[in-house]
Structures are given as C-alpha cells and as structure tokens.
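Work Package 3 (structural annotation) set out to generate three-dimensional models for the target panel prioritized at the project kickoff. During this period the team completed the workflow that converts sequence records into discrete structure tokens, so that structures can be stored uniformly alongside our sequence database. As a representative example, we reproduce one entry of 490 residues exactly as it appears in the project archive.
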Amino acid sequence: MIQVKAIRILSSLTKEEFAEFDKFVQSPYFNRSKDVLNLFFEIKKYYPEFSHPKLDYEKIYKKLYPGKLYAEGTIRNLFSDLGSLAEKFLGYVNYENTFEFGHKILEETNARYLEKEFLKNYNKYYERNEIKEDALYRKNLNKCFIESEMLLYEQRININLNESLRKSVSEALFSFFLNEFLLAQSCHVKVADWYKGQKEFDIVETFFEFSDIESIVNRMKDSKSAYYDDIKLPYYLAKVAQNKDGNFYNNFEEAYKIFNEQINSMGKQSQIRIYVWVINIINMYIKADDKHLSTIKFQVEKEMIEKGLALDSKGKMPGFMYSQIIHDAIAANEIEWAKDFWENQIDAVDDDAIAKNDIYTYYKAKFLSLDKKYIESNEILLKVSKDDDTFKAASKILKLINFYELGELESAFAHAEAFKQMIIRNDEAYTGRKELSSNFLKYYLVLLKNKSGKETDISFVKKELKECDVIRNKVWLLEKFEEISNILPS
C-alpha cells in the first residue's frame, strides 16, 4: 500500500464525502491539472482501503503514461499534488454549515456597505447561533463576534453608541472566557501531586490567584445577568474541583444536582465536555472504598455510552476509555453489565489503540477471578504482554490475588518479591501510581504472613488500611482482613 498523504486523507472520507471530492477534483476552480485528475480516476476504484496490489507507483505510472520510461519523481509529485488538493477539500467539508461561514458573510457584507444584505444575514445567523450552539461551548464567543459586527455597522452609519449592545459583547466574551478558564483550572488541580518536577508558571492559575471569581459570579446572579445560567454549572464544578473549603461531598452534591438539571438540554459537544469534567473531578477525590462516588461515576459513564457520546465520528472509542468503563463498572459492582460491555464493545476500540489486546485479555482474566476461577485466570494472564507497562502492575496484582485465594503461599511470596523489585526499578512519571502499588503490596504481605502463621495480630494494620486512600484493590484487601478478624478468637 502506498503510504502518502493523499491516500490517508481519501481513505478517511465517508462515501458521501468521497463523492463530493470526485466533483471537487473535477472543478477547474480548484484543480487545473489533468494529470492529477487522471491519477484520481485511476486510484478511486480502490477506495476505501486503497490496499490493492495494483496500487503501485510504477503500475499507476504506466497506466497514466503508456509507452513512457518510468519516472518515480513524476508520480510522487502527482500524489503530492493530489494530497494537497485533498487537504484543501477537508477545509471545505461542511464549511457552509459552520459559524465561520456565516460570520464571513457578515464581515464581507458589512465591509462592502451592503446594508440590506448585512441586516438580513445578521438576524439569520444570530438566531442560528442562539438555537444551534451551546453556551458551554461556542455560543457566547460566536455571539461576541456577531454583535461586534453590529457595533461596527452602527458606528459606520453614525448611530449613537448602543451601550446595551456594547455590554452584551463584553459579557458574552467574558462568559466564554470564564467557562474555558474554569475548565482549564479544574484540569490543573492536583497535577503537582502526580507529576515530578517544579510546577511552571501558568496564566490560568495566575488569573484565579488574583481574581475574586466568587464575587463576580454572585454579582452576575444578583443582577440577574442573562449570562449567569451559562456559567453556573462550570462555576460549581470548578468550586468542587478546587475544594478550598474542604467540603467536597456537599459541594459535589450541589454541582451534581445542577448537572442533572442542565445536561440533557446541551448539545453533543457540550455534553461530552461536561461528562468528562464530572468524571475527572470524581477521579480527583474518590477514595479507594467510596461506593457512593463509584456508583455515580459508573452512572455518568453509562449515560455517555447510552447517548453514544463515548464514540467518535467513526464509531470508535479510545482504549483507555473502554478499559476505565469496565474498571468502574466492576467497582460499582455492576459485574454482569461490565462483562457484556467488555465482550460487545471491544470492536469499538480502534485497532491501532495501544494495548487493545492486553486490555481485553486482562479483563478476561479479571472476570475469571471474580468468578473464583483462579487457575484459569492466571493462565490467561500469561497472555498479557510483558513489554507493555499499561497492564503490567494490574496483572501482577491480579496474579497475587489469585495465588492468595488458591492458598498457594510459596508462589504468592515469590511473586510478591518480584513485584516489589519491579516497583523499585520502575521510575514512573506518575509517582502516585507507584504508591498505589507499593501500598497494596504492604498490606498484601501482612495477609500472606498471617495466612502462613507468621503474624497473628492484624488489628492495628487493619485500622491503618481503612485510613489509606492511595492504594489498589482496597475493597479486596478489606474483605480479606475482615475474614481473618472473623476467624481469630476474640
């Protein structure tokens, strides 16, 4: 297969888009090269895979230039020109349906003093923006651009300054800006706890350090600003993410209530952003044994799946999302749902996704372990790649759990020591991950020693475990400690 830009772009087009490109490449307005047109006609029959053996530089050259001596430079240049044309086509795909198209019409009619056309299009695109766009996405930024054109128009024809319109332009821009900064700041929270190295200067953090956002939002609310509802949910979500007052759970319940009130009225893009935002906030503060937040997180992810928001335009989802959803379904004790999703949604994961096979294999082993088929689970774990770090720690821990449940203490101790050495050697970028694994191993070894008769008093360690939040498989560990407590004489 020829690996060039033209082929990559053309293979990404839908059937409808490919048919439009056929017209595009034949238009003398966009393409004046007959050779490029002939090249397209020659390769179009191989759409969409473009993997036929005849799709070869020399064979195509002979088709285009029969009787001529093969010149690879010529055919490569033709593919390059076709690639540039295909790239240009991407800029035109659905362009007429975008805000930018309408805004350009407003700019041009305004600049050319076409007053009748300007006013007609102003009303048309203003209303379209109000109906089509989302306040939590592009609506307010678009509104700022549209109303700015009206301000220019009124200044041009000497209408007195419209103070209300000027304020609306400023508020629209500020609302967009504040929403984006609230989201950006939430993404920055706790980063320093996970990444190594000194934190660099950040304009978003600096803005919030020197700005009293709470007073601004309260003033908007008290003044009944038309934009208050646009920033209400992002503000409360950011407040939860920052957790300055330490009252996370109450603040989260308040924000989650607003989330449920507003989410279904949003467009697709805004819903995706907000769903991911809520999930990220839960990830920041969820404790290892927090069943309430685990249930909410799974419910949010399940809603995304049911609405088709987890899939991209080609019906694919990232491998990490597929994996995380299964993990969270298990944490919420939705085992059968998790199994169904694992089996039926694997094809939705892009084939190029890192560790796709390992994800599928690991969770196959996980479900076998949950079904108490520990030997079969360990056999499946042998198929997880040894070279990929993605599931290395998770696989090691699952194997340790299986050995414990089987009572194979010698194997458990040996693998625990090997896992300990792996943790020591592994200089992970996320220091938190290392702590998750080392804390699991710490309490796991207590269980092993107790089971082998080397340690009997676990009461203090059990209390310590309950207070530990940075740890893998805490629920399983607590269950095992509880089992031992019930066996030990009082």
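The CA atoms of residues 155 and 161 lie 7 Å apart.
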